[in-house]
Predict the 3D structure of the following.
Amino acid sequence: MRTYPQSVTEFTEKVIETLKEIDFFEIEEVKEEVFYEICCESLLKKFLNGDDIIFRSEEEFTNVAKDSIIMTAAIGLQSKGLVDKIFDDEKDTNVYFLTQKGKEVAKDLGLDKQKENENN
């Protein structure tokens, strides 16, 4: 886990406490530590730009929440061996892909045929 400026971590911790009060982590099945990292990364950009450490819009918070949900799901799929990831240096991001096991599960679920129908 990275180290973040105190103002970033304090604000993130306040957000997490508020989300706990409404059972966000249980309802959305989001790992708190995943939300923490994504929130801190988002707020770190503001800190480095000299901006206030707050969410200025609902959209900013929604993006952090969505990214946390997606990342939690990706971590779960990776732990089950259904996906893996590589780091794309050019785009400075992780790229997730189905493993052989993931392809077999997708085929068993008929998702490969569904994709074929969408392309036709």
The chain has two domains: 1-79, 82-120. Residues 39 and 71 are 12 Å apart (CA to CA). Residues 58-79 form the longest helix (22 residues).
